[in-house]
Amino acid sequence: MKAHEFDKKFDEGRNITKHLDVSKARRPEQEQKRVNVDFPLWMVHLLDKEAKRLGVPRQSIIKVWVAERLEKAG
Fold first, then answer.
1. Is residue 31 part of a domain?
2. How confident is the model at residue 20, as a pLDDT?
3. Is the Cα dihedral 9, 11, 12, 16 positive or negative?
4. What is the residue range of 52's domain?
5. 30-56 residues labelled b (16+ CB within 10 A) or e (exposed)
6. 73 within some domain
């Protein structure tokens, strides 16, 4: 299929997913990298308390708080 045909289908709101190869798709700057961070026990206890209160995993709290701080530092 030529690019202009693909664009036309997309612009018309037609389903174009069968024409896409998403096996190698990437989300720029959204790839994950595992890092290890050591926290004092008092921090872990407070993180767990807050995570339980919100009903989310500890890792989610850490990610959100770090992201918020980095956005402010921007």
1. no
2. 87
3. positive
4. 36-74
5. eeeeeeeeeeeeeeeeebeeebeeeee
6. yes
Q: Which residues fall within 8 angstroms of residue 47, CB to CB, at 6 or more apart?
A: 39, 58, 61, 62
In the prediction, which pLDDT does 41 show? 98
Q: In CATH, what number is assigned to the domain containing residue 43? A: 1.10.1220
Q: Is residue 49 part of a domain?
A: yes
pLDDT at 27: 82
Q: Residue type at 46?
A: L
* 12 belongs to a structural domain: no
* pLDDT given for residue 43 in this prediction: 97
Q: Give 10-55 pLDDT, tens digit per residue.
A: 999 999 988 888 888 888 888 889 999 999 999 999 999 999 999 9
Q: Specify the amino acid at residue 4.
A: H
